[in-house]
Amino acid sequence: MSNDTHTVTQHDAQVLREYGPFDGADAIHGVSFDGQRVWAATGPALVAFDPATGVAERTLPVPCDAGTAFDGTHLYQIADARIDRIDPRTGEVLGSIPAPGGGTDSGMAWAEGSLWVGQYRERRIHQVDPATGKVLRTIESDRFVTGVTWVDGELWHGTDDGERSDIRRIDPTSGRVIERLQMPEGMHVSGLESDGEQLFYAGGGRSGRVRAVRRPRA
Q: How large a percentage of the chain has pLDDT more than 90?
């Protein structure tokens, strides 16, 4: 279990930009990044937008009520109790595996050949085999887990307790909190993804917005 006393580096999150809301979307459930576009799971459709302009460029009408991930070729999308593997060009579902939480899952990321799936109220992150859905290991958190992302070997996840949200870096072995970014009051974190450099893209839940948040650098 995480112990975030005394050793946690804390920052106020720097929100640099907001995107959306997008047509037909009243919430953001998951966020991913394919190297060019940010993908936002809005419930009835995945929306891809250009982070430079904020303009929505693609819409895929697929169910998407939780986390989203990209493995370099395919999108992975939580839809109720399953994870769909999707062709990002056509929206075709190429295969599915069971979601580890059976419908209680939240965020999702791709790293090291695995899917990393958050379980919201259970306060867990599961490493999942993308071919079979087998849970390979589980990391415990001490907060409700929303979005999940890896960047430069660091595991970060979003939290939401109904009042305040933060983005935190945890030890991927012990779950101990190492660093925390406190979001401004009223800004909740649903999905979370890194651009691989200096930004996080954080889903804003029922605001229907995605926010670019500066990633602190050592």
A: 88
Q: Which domains does the chain have, with CATH numbers?
A: 9-214 (2.120.10.30)
Residue pair 18/11 in contact (Cβ under 8 Å)? The answer is no
**DSSP assignment letter at 12:** E
Q: Taking the model in full, what pTM does it have?
A: 0.94
pLDDT value of residue 4: 43
* CA atoms 13, 20, 153, 214: torsion sign: negative
Helix (H, G, I), strand (E, B) or coil at 70: strand
Dist. CA 114–CA 127, nearest whole Å: 6
**Residue 1's pLDDT is what?**
45
Cβ(40)–Cβ(203) below 8 Å: yes
d(CA 150, CA 71): 12
Q: Following CA atoms 192, 83, 60, 207 in sequence, which dihedral angle do they give, to the nearest 10 degrees?
A: -40
